[in-house]
Amino acid sequence: MTITIPRHLLPADGRFGSGPSRLRPSQLHYLRQADPGILGTSHRQAPVRSLVARIQEQLLTLFRAPAGYEVVLGNGGATAFWDIITYGLIEHRAQCLDFGVFGGRLARAAAAPWLTAPDVRTARHGELIAPERVSGIDLYAWPENETSTGVAAPVHRVAPSIDALTVIDATSSAGGMEFDAEQVDVYYFAPQKSLGSDGGLWLALLSPAAIERAERIAASGRYIPEFLSLGAAITNSRKHQTTNTPALATLLLLEAQLEWLLGQGGLSWAAERTRRSSQLIYDWAEASPIAAPFVARPAHRSPVTATIEISPRVSVRDLSRTLRANGIVDIDAYSGIGTNQLRVATYVSVEPDEVARLLTCIDEVFPRLVEYAC
Ligand SMILES: *Cc1c(COP(=O)(O)O)cnc(C)c1O
Questions:
Q1: Which of 151, 251, 248 is nearest to 195 (CA)?
Q2: pTM recorded for the entire structure
């Protein structure tokens, strides 16, 4: 069975996945012109180190970072940063919010044998749970956008940084949601989601309190593998380097994206655009007889990851397969989330108009799949 969507209805770019996510053509142009000047050259020499320095500067500007904050980077993606937190930022005990797969993974990493078992607060998928100040907690952590469920959380301090660090996983929200950097000590992410680059790196905005904590733990004699040493990453990042070799293409794609974002108007422009794109989906789902938002409370719905339950009259596997055959890819739910769910990334590289086209295509295909099912 094949269903062909008329060409004039299709989005120009069919990539709506949560990560790696779509690249804009001008990023690839930028990548091409960096060969041979930057690509294929040493990361210890000036051309790559200036590239890293520009990215650090761009991120400080984009995030409106207060004085004393630094951008640190290294290899291994956000997953490596969970272990970095465990080795190098939690002093005794963390509180971790688990309202989806990604928050849950940090909670598991934070159960390391040299720490007191974390205070894990869990919400059902599709719901949010708030942090709560508890004595003995020296680090509070949660994702700003839980990419698995499409729940977004506010970024705010639970305690002053002298008592506890506030550590936010912004992998799928950095560059697509507004936040106040004064309210965080660590805002970390990998660049292949909201920031439309490629995978392999982690980047983190660190407050002076976070740097002080990392340096104190590094000096304390605790065993820390070099690859996961935040102290080493801070030292290298100050020289615009990484502890080991980074993917230069990922850095170049990121620089091009940050330049574009800043040129468009920065975080407030980006946040407005992702809000508009996601709202198209939520409004469509609320009005549609075939769809409903997965996240019940509008205030908890993510502007960058829209999760939608689809009527059981059609299996999302068939829907997704049909759309894929027409070039619309990666809108499947995160494994195990929801019952018959689609998940659409509305990152800043996705034009709202493209989202509208995607919805038209779903409306076009759905009744025909119902027919086939009968
Ligand atoms: C994708 C994702 C991660 C994992 O990122 P990797 O770079 O693959 O390690 C972590 N946290 C969130 C919120 C994510 O969306």
A1: 251
A2: 0.98
Confidence (pLDDT) at 374? 72
Cα-Cα end-to-end distance for the chain: 13
Q: What is the mean pLDDT of the chain?
A: 97
Q: 171 in ligand 1 pocket by Cβ < 6 Å?
A: yes
Domain boundaries, the chain: 15-23+266-373, 25-263
Instruction: Report how far ligand 1's centroid is from the alpha carbon of 264 (Å).
Output: 26
Distance of CA 41 to the CA centre of its chain: 29
The per-residue pLDDT for 1 is 64
pLDDT at residue 174 greater than cutoff 80: yes
Strand ranges, E, within 208-352: 291-293, 305-310, 341-345
Going by CATH, does the domain composed of 15-23+266-373 fall within 3.90.1150.10?
Answer: yes
- Please tell me the distance between residue 333's alpha carbon and the centre of ligand 1 in angstroms: 15
Is 25-263 CATH 3.40.1410.10? Answer: no
Q: Give me the percent of the chain exceeding a pLDDT of 70.
A: 100
